[in-house]
Amino acid sequence: MLANVTLPVMILVGEDDNIIGPPEVLAAAIPGAILVKTPGDHISALIRPEFKQAILDFLAQHSPIPV
User: Fold this and answer.
1) CA distance linking residue 44 with residue 5, whole number of Å
2) Do 60 and 54 meet the contact criterion of CB atoms below 8 Å apart?
3) Would you call 20 helix, strand, or coil by DSSP?
4) Per-residue pLDDT, 27
5) How far apart are CA 53 and CA 67, in angstroms?
6) Could you tell me which residue, 59 or 66, shows the higher pLDDT?
7) How much is the pTM?
8) Among 29, 30, 33, 51, which is 20 to 30 Å from 5 by CA?
9) pLDDT tens-digit profile of 10-54?
10) HEC-encoded secondary structure of the chain
11) What is the pLDDT of residue 67?
12) Phi/psi zone of residue 58: left (φ > 0), alpha (ψ -120 to 50 degrees), beta?
């Protein structure tokens, strides 16, 4: 199923996240997916400015609506 995904996908995780398993596996299963790691763990990454910036950068590149 994941091999059929055609939309842009970003896998965004905290580099110290040890809860979810290796994000590389998920990124490799989705054609064209990019993997971005930001500082922090499963929870603390969410409040880091790098996490927010990664989302904004991804949307700026892939959204049909200007951000």
Assistant:
1) 29
2) no
3) coil
4) 97
5) 12
6) 59
7) 0.88
8) 51
9) 999 999 999 989 999 999 999 999 999 999 999 999 999 999 999
10) CHHHCCCCCEEEEECCCCCCCCHHHHHHHCCCCEEEEECCCCCHHHHCHHHHHHHHHHHHHHCCCCC
11) 64
12) alpha
Domain boundaries, given as residue ranges, for the chain? 2-62
Indicate the Cα dihedral angle 45, 48, 51, 55, nearest 10°. Answer: 130
Sign of CA dihedral 43, 48, 35, 12: positive
Q: Which of 34, 40, 38 is nearest to 9 (CA)?
A: 34
Q: How many residues are listed for the chain in this entry? A: 67
30: phi then psi, degrees, rounded to nearest 5: -115, 115
